[in-house]
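Let us work through a complete example step by step.
Step 1: write down the sequence.
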Amino acid sequence: MVLFVVVHHALVDDAYITLGYARNLAEHGHWGLLSDRSSNTQTSPLNCWLLAAGIVVTGRPVVAVGALLVATLTLIGWTSAQLGRDLGLSRMLPYGLVGLLVTSPLLVSTVGLETYLGAALLLGIARYAVVGKPIVVGALCGLAVLDRPDLAVPAGVLAVAGLWPRLERPLTQLGTVAGVAALVALPWHVFSWYILGGFLPDTTWLKSMVTEFGGDTWAAMFYAPFTNYGRTWPAAVALTVLPVAVALVCAVVAAWRRREASSRMVLTFVAAGWLHFAGLVATGAAPFTWYYGPLVVCSMCAMVLTLAGTTPRVGSVGVALLAAACAVTAGPVPWTTAPMQGNQATSNQYAAVGRQLAGLTSGQPVLGPGEIGVLAFNSAVPVVDFYGDRGQIQQWLDLKYQKSGPLLRAFLLWNWTHKPAAVETPLRYRLMFGQATPPTARVLASWLLQTPSYGPVQLVLTDQGQPS
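Step 2: predict the structure and record it as tokens.
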């Protein structure tokens, strides 16, 4: 609850994309960022469903974020306590793990997204694998895929490595795990394939186009923490990387003592986190901060499991000092921006702009500036970009297809078998950052925005002279 009170005014823009989907689902039974058109850009249907349920109960979307966050962290605490008991570890495990999770600069900057929910599911898979419950593990694996498709990698690692020593018929029982996971996850993906036009969401392809956005496919996920992010948030990055580095040392210790059950779980968590990271690199994922979440979470689990099994008293002090350093680095509370928020304006600034758009455009839609979550959430007129409008994203999907090899092209054609036709509609009004304003456009309004990451930027509303 304390974390939510601190961060609720500083949710990142992408969290509001999820909230836009959740509000439309709760209030209109409609799947899309914008209320007047459907879209297939929600990466985490499970997170969206739970937030929608919270909105139905509370009537307040941001409060629903807080309720889900509290419930998720409570579940993490309970599950880690059970895992520690099953492995015979110190009772410091749940306190240390939750303490690190709620102070990590990177993780707290993802509140409203699916990161904490994914952490709870991965911990649940690990715990029920340790006690040999393949059906429960399969159900949690299916939920993990619904939380994020790429969580299939760490979920699968935790399930297989955790269950294998405890199964009498490993192949048969792991088949049960896969079957149960499919029963949980496939209905949504089949629905999405037929109704929304993609077995996987469109953002799966958009967010794996790092070269098209000017990056280096194979290096971006590696160098971004030390260049892009390291220059902007040096202390926050250092405190985020520290547990990842410590977890690698813990893996060496665990390999030396690999006969112990807790050591095997440490190695499994480290492998799960790094294989997920390797999968993102291999698919050319852009280095968004929350993509590092599973690696950070799995590393923290490995680190605290090691400390709880070897030096719990020293470990408790070390974890407390790291958590305190993270809290101090985050700055004074309540936050107006999260510790690692890369948006060009605060949520409050974007919200103020969004509320003015209807009057400035006589109720007509507006083309967004690239960050759309808060603007679309707070505007009475549609704020359009590729997250909410199929016509806007089609050019990027076409480019992804052109750049792909024959196998991926075949999969994309199948994935889009039922994709509805999409045509980009010209819009008269457009929001853009000042340096991109064309000389022929007429400026209707401008706002000076500022965040610690970007400094001052000018956002302008222009009349492009297009048909209304």
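Step 3: interpret the result. The radius of gyration is 23 Å.
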